[in-house]
Design goal:
The complex is a heterodimer of chains A (345) and B (231). Chain A is of the alpha+beta class and 345 residues long. Helices cover 27% and strands 37% of the residues of chain A. The chains are: A alpha+beta (345), B mainly alpha (231).
Chain lengths: 345, 231
């Protein structure tokens, strides 16, 4: 397999904060590479380096065998395009936005017109040329952003949480298009949506605190190291109540999840998605449990708590909240999370 | 207390405009010339400087911005005096030979409004998301193309900078007086004429000229705003 990128001991610091820590890997063409890891793991930083928007603080980045430095980074930007989590737009209509990259590449007016129409059709937004880009729905905006990237026919398409802000219908359209595009170019997709990674990615990179925990074929990542490293993963039996899954994970703990799959399932709740309170609070969150703190891990500005509710949950809160709420080992707390925060692994 | 002088002034202004008084037209045009030329020069220097300060991060950036922000309010008469000393025949810049000329006034006004352009443009650019910069870069833009795209996005702030600069240059007195010296037919502009007429007790005429000055500023600003909405 031909490798597009090679990273040799790449590190990236922002001021004195280490975002990436000695990353070495190679990424090939004609395949979809998934990047997973919790927020702050370095996914976006890695994508920005691959896009040529940031240069490594240390280490070497090779693109098609050539080292990327301050001078050659523009060449990389010309052939690698990143799609940001929240799409941004230039002033003006959809056409202006999709045409921007073509214009600065000096394409003729006629060919730009043709290419924009084709790109919009590719993302199933035919006839959207004259719409104000900033007034479209979230799903439409993300698809326009995708069209704006694809119209340049980039060798590398980098996607940062492309579907995390989208509803299911829009997300599945995006996933479909990404799958098609993966055959034509090198695609790297960072996400916390495990289902999407399992569906799309041939290879997966698992990042944690700026380091690679594991890299390999997606199936092998999901069967082994990922689950072992992931917190709040529970296996249980799901039964459907009013269309949503109630998953009995043992010891009398039942998690309500916003999907409908009966039978044996493995579910995951992100430690960042769990809210702590000192008493019962009435919220829209479908899951609420009472528990006791068994451990507090200090991670600088944030803290990770282990809470025993019959099952152990890991919860991430800011240090400030920890202090303000006067929490410590043995404190009694209530934790809650939305049914939609529960992911199927 | 009497409203009479104001009413007389208005009536006189109307008469001057109606009859197309040659001298009034001439000094109004000269005011427009100095202010436009000054704003143009200030924009040529100030726009790139504002973009640079807005887009780059460097040591002492805060200090640089504070200095430019403060210079926005510099008294015109002090700047005028300073420039007079520099430009006078025995002064260090005397060889330029632009004292008592229209270009001389324009240069002075340009220096006066450069801080306005730099400050406003830098803030307008900073108000734009840093991600917007990454967006145009990832679409393949060079540094210059990135700056142009960001300037275009910061359009309202940039046009405010230019319009405010013109307004300040058009309405200032100190520099036109110090560098131009209010020479009739050569460097007399609206503000210096107003100053002279009031000093001579010609309240009616100086009020009339004031109304004309305000009318010109209002008309221009409405015109610009109208064009912006159309564009």
């Amino acid at each position: 397999m031909e490798s597009v990128y090679e990273l040799h001991s790449v590190s990236k610091f922002y001021d004195n904060v280490r975002a990436l820590d000695v990353i070495s890997l190679s990424i090939g063409t004609g395949e979809i590479t998934g990047v997973i890891g919790r927020s702050g793991a370095g996914k976006t930083t890695l994508l920005k380096i691959l896009a040529g928007l940031e240069l490594p603080t240390a280490g070497k980045l090779l693109f098609k065998g050539d080292e990327i430095d301050r001078k050659s980074v523009r060449q990389l930007r010309r052939v690698a395009t990143i799609l940001f989590q929240t799409p941004l737009f230039l002033r003006g209509d959809v056409y202006t936005n999709v045409a921007y990259g073509l214009r600065i590449r000096n394409h003729s007016r006629e060919s730009i017109g043709k290419m924009v129409v084709e790109a919009l059709s590719l993302v199933r937004l035919d006839g959207f040329e004259d719409r104000d880009a900033r007034r479209l729905s979230g799903g439409e905006q993300q698809r326009v952003a995708l069209a704006r990237a694809l119209v340049l026919d980039p060798r590398v398409l980098l996607l940062d949480e492309p579907t995390s802000n989208l509803d299911r219908a829009n997300a599945s359209v995006m996933t479909e298009i990404i799958e098609e595009e993966g055959e034509k170019r090198c695609v790297v997709i960072a996400t916390h949506d495990y289902e999407q990674i399992k569906k799309l990615a041939d290879r997966t990179i698992f990042l944690e605190a700026g380091r690679i925990v594991e890299v390999g074929a997606t199936d092998s990542i999901f069967s082994g190291p990922l689950l072992a490293n992931m917190e709040n993963v529970y296996t249980g039996v799901s039964r459907l109540v009013d269309g949503i899954s109630h998953v009995d994970i043992g010891n009398g703990v039942e998690i309500k999840a916003a999907f409908s799959r009966p039978g044996r399932v493995v579910v995951h709740v992100s430690p960042e998605d769990i809210i702590l309170s000192k008493g019962w609070v009435e919220t829209s969150a479908r899951n609420e449990f009472k528990g006791r703190i068994t451990a507090v891990e200090d991670l600088g500005p944030i803290a990770r708590l282990k809470i025993d509710t019959g099952k152990s949950f890991t919860v991430q809160i800011t240090k400030r909240s920890l202090i303000d709420m006067g929490l410590n080992v043995d404190s009694e707390v209530y934790l809650s999370f939305k049914a939609s925060s529960v992911e199927l692994v | 207390m009497s409203w009479q002088p104001l009413l007389d002034g208005l009536r006189e202004a109307a008469r001057l405009i109606e009859t197309g008084d040659r001298e009034v037209i001439e000094i109004t045009i000269r005011s427009l010339q100095t202010a436009s030329l000054g704003t143009l020069m200030a924009a040529i220097v100030g726009l790139p400087l504002g973009v640079l300060i807005g887009m780059r991060s460097f040591r002492g950036k805060r200090t640089v911005k504070i200095v430019f922000n403060s210079l926005v309010g510099i008294p015109t008469v002090s700047l005028g005096l300073l420039l007079y000393i520099l430009l006078s025949h025995s002064g260090p810049l005397g060889f330029l030979d632009i004292l008592y000329t229209v270009p001389g006034i324009a240069v002075g006004e340009a220096i006066l409004v450069i801080p306005i352009i730099v400050s406003f443009v830098a803030s307008a650019i900073e108000s734009k998301d840093i991600q917007l910069r990454d967006l145009v870069r990832t679409l393949g833009a060079s540094e210059l193309e990135t700056s142009i795209a960001i300037l275009r996005e910061a359009y309202s702030g940039v046009s405010l900078a230019v319009v405010s600069s013109f307004n300040r240059a058009f309405a200032e007195l100190g520099i036109a007086m110090m560098i131009g010296a209010n020479i009739r037919g050569v460097t007399r502009v609206l503000t210096t004429a107003i100053s002279l007429q009031s000093a001579m007790g010609e309240i009616g005429l100086s009020l009339a000229l004031s109304f004309i000055l305000i009318a010109v500023v209002l008309t221009l600003n409405f015109l610009i705003s109208f064009l912006q909405r159309g564009g």
